[in-house]
Structure prediction request, 711 residues.
Amino acid sequence: MLQIENLRARIGEKEILRSLDLHLEAGEVQAIMGPNGSGKSTLAHVLAGREDYEVSGRVLFEGEDLLALSPEDRAAAGVFLAFQHPMEIPGVGNLYFMRTALNSIRRRRGLHELDAMDFLALAQEKMKLVEMDRSFMSRSVNEGFSGGEKKRNEILQMAILEPKLAILDETDSGLDIDALRVVANGVNALRSKDRAMLVITHHQRLLDYIVPDRVHVMTEGRIVRSGDKGLAIALEEHGYSGLERHIADDHPVPAGTP
Amino acid sequence: MTTRISGHVVEPRGLTSLRPRTGGGDPAWLAEARRDAASWAHEHGLPTRKDEDWRYTRLEPIGQVLFQPSAARVDHDLASIASEAPGADLGGTRLIFVNGHLVPELSRLTGLPEGATVTNLATALAEDGERLRPLLSSPAGPRQHAFAALNTALAEDGAFIRLSPGTIVEEPIELVFLSDPGGTALVSSPRSVVIAERGSQVTIVETHAGIPGDQGGNSLTNAVTELVLEEEAQVEIYRVQDEPETAFQLGLLDVRQGRNSRFTSHSFALGSSIGRYEVRVRLESEGAEVSLNGLSMSRGEQQHDNPILVEHAAPHCTSRQVYKGVADGRSHSVFNGHIVVRPGAFGTDARQTNRNLLLSDRAEIDTRPRLEILTDDVKCSHGAAVGRLDEDALFYLRSRGIPDEAARGILTFAFANEMVGLIRPEPLRAWVEGLVTDRLSGGAAASREAIVR
Prediction:
């Protein structure tokens, strides 16, 4: 579904992604872990179409050149980014925002648009997934939401837009254990054989709840290690610096519990 | 011919050479006041950018037109005006003026309590002119400018509202001013007077717009409204300026407030080529409160100017100003807000906020908050900001599939809607929302639903 080859991104002189390769198939959940500043969030934003970067390399999404598309066209093609820091947009109603988004995508795909009543019914159904009540929908987008509420609101959008590829950027950051469970349950409910997910996280904790098929470790703008879930646990043991030492010494970290 | 000599626009046959029409039924004092005002205007000429309050207004396009004063016309297509007149018909009393003159056939008085006098200025002058004398002579004061003087010289009609003590008018009173140059160049000079006596309350909705089927031409509306709030009176004025983008629109609202009175204004400046709406408020007695709100949206080559003067002349008065500007295209939007706290006005609480959204690289926004504090023990604050659409918010919307243009429209609407949301009469709010939405770029027509109420 997603093939990333030799992806590079820079802002001015600063190179953030350096030759990154990744393959993701439908139905898979892959995790990207890495220390702060390793380029994880940049990868997420580059895939979603953020225009601040100079990007080179190749990204194919279902065989199509993703990098040639605008952010809105990527969304219409089925790419979704759950933001680490969802924007607050005062004056724009949450319900209206999500309906406009869904209808924009549906219009692009030649589907009929949902009217307010039908959309409300759909939204209420999806809100159960993330245990949100209707009061969230009459507020401005993310305005005054707690950290946990913002993340739930992201997953709600994902549930409504039903993307083919969901990129979750630090979805666990700032969440207490209860909120984490709610968010993870929502994400797990959305796992399907037709959908791929790229879970970006700093901590192994999230991966206890959203169990990945594959784990990649990213440092300094490239993927330096890949393995199964055991790699995440090893990381938790050794830390990123420990892992980097292993790499430097050319001693691979054993998969699974040491 | 217009010649520019060292910053002064000299127009031998221009606006300031216009003379009051003779042969009217003016009382002698008014005829004299008109002559005085006309010669004052002629002597001083139009304001220039050397005048502090006019430094951002490009008046040259007005100076280049040879205007004639408007007269009451008899050949209006009343049926089409009646059916298509812009505005939100709120169902209550409604006066419709064309080129500054009341059209009685289109106007109606309804639901007014005893104690409310609503008529036109010409009638008020004919019936009880002497009582208007102090008001109609007042802009000849030290803060006069040529346009105020020209209004005094040329005004023949306008709205007249007087509320006797304790009178409460429940339904908003609508004043609709339509410009219809009919292929010529006309200056309309409506002069309105509102007197809210002790403890009275009223809401006024003032609309300025073109006429359906306008034949083109140049119109200049040079309107002056005088508002007096006596002790504990409460007045709210909504002003919607949606003139054709060929029209010139100059307005002056001069307000004097008595003890514990409360005045609120909401200005929506959308139309006209040059649109200037000057609001001057003098808080004359203890405990008066004023709240001035404004939204200006300019595009193309439009110029919008919002000069404000709030004068705290008595202790313990409160003033609030919240103005927002949105400038697109090559337009120019100005906020020039001046607060003066006179000696002895202790306990003053004055705040001013001006926030602006620049939608185009070629548009210009000037914001000029001025505080002049001549006494101790006051609370004053002001803040001004000019920004662009938030790129992060834009990316967020686009990443959800909302096209760029629509996303920009939604964010612009959200910015403007803070002011629109303050409108209390629902049909008026819906109408203004529609006007605002229509001005947004691409596909944002749906964004009127975005409102959070």
